Amino acid sequence: MGRSPCCDEIGVKKGPWTPEEDKKLIDFVARNGHGSWRNLPKLAGLNRCGKSCRLRWTNYLRPDIKRGKFSEEEESAIIKLHSVLGNRWSKIASHFPGRTDNEIKNFWNTHLRKKLLQMGIDPNTHKPRTDLNHLLNNSQLFNGIANYLNNDHLMLQAELVKLQLLQNLCQLLNPTTPSQALPGTPLDRLQNPNSNPSRASFSTQNPNSSQLQAGFTSGFMSGSGFEYEDKNKAKMEEMENLDYVQVENYYPILPPLTSESETNPLGCSTNSNSPSSSSSIFDSLESLMNEDEPSESYWNNLLRSTI
DNA sequence: AAACTGACCAACCGCTCTAGA
DNA sequence: GTCTAGAGCGGTTGGTCAGTT
């Protein structure tokens, strides 16, 4: 399997391209096009392999290349597309005219990956990082509870609350699984402040719920992880043909926080009537974890609602 | 001023896919 | 059906540069 590299010729130059080489390549392609990349270097007077010429042209010299910083719109669209398409950079790049797969790949690896990690989202699965070490050791929420309750009995109770919080956070974040918060538990009250059966963040009343569901099962926060190869292939193919703007319809919308009266101590919106109330839990958790010194009233408020 | 570190990104490597002989 | 060349793709490397010690 495989084939010998095309660039194994002795004496073929490697490394950064000089302006002179760029000019030769641009001039040649402008005059003749690029029929055969293998023959191009000789014809163009370049001491490079054809593959190197092709990469230089497609990633850098092409006249329709769009260079410069990625806009916020492009950034969020890349994240959304990656949650659906995975590391298929060329597919992702096809949604951004003028951007190359290499550029998007680099941008992902240097910026977006880190950004998602900082938000507590696994960049590979686009699911919240659920490993206990991350949650329990790095979460100021849980550490705050543990510090606040500095005696054995209450510590045990806090441990139970932690587990309940974990279970129910997972449930909040992953509504496709049938289990719910246990009735009467702190998180049940958190999820269900008014005992409204239609309280679920992704309620069936949500006009976008079927599309959102499609988004979930296609990748983002799906119950069993990133499994687009196995599931919903037809949906995947449909997604690949969408303009990136349309992907919004398949991706959960994370709304801005509503007014203070509509948020519980975790900062989660509880207004079930609004379609945009699907979830702001990432924002909430992010702000929680970013908060350097949560105030005493903050923790009092939290504990009153959870214990 | 020098050494070190980390971010960025162009370019390379090796593999797979596709089309044509 | 098999082989091969060409092209495409994703992962990785290494050079450059700015910021920090």
Automatic annotation (TrEMBL):
The UniProt record lists the keyword Cell membrane: no
Start and end residues of each stretch annotated as Disordered: 180-215, 256-282
Biased composition (Low complexity): 269-282
Highest taxon in the source lineage: Eukaryota
Presence of keyword Nucleus: yes
Molecular function (Gene Ontology), one example: DNA binding
Primary localisation category: nucleus
Composition skew (Polar residues), residue ranges: 191-214, 258-268
Cited Gene3D superfamilies: Homeodomain-like
Keywords on record: DNA-binding, Nucleus, Repeat
PROSITE patterns per record: HTH_MYB (PS51294), MYB_LIKE (PS50090)
Membrane-spanning parts: none
Domain HTH myb-type: 9-61, 62-116
Compartments, as annotated in UniProt: Nucleus
Pfam families: Myb_DNA-binding (PF00249)
InterPro entries: Homeodomain-like_sf, Myb_dom, Myb_TF_plants, SANT/Myb
GO cellular component: nucleus
Span of domain Myb-like: 9-61, 62-112
Name of the featured protein: Transcription factor MYB41-like
Gene of this entry: LOC111463849
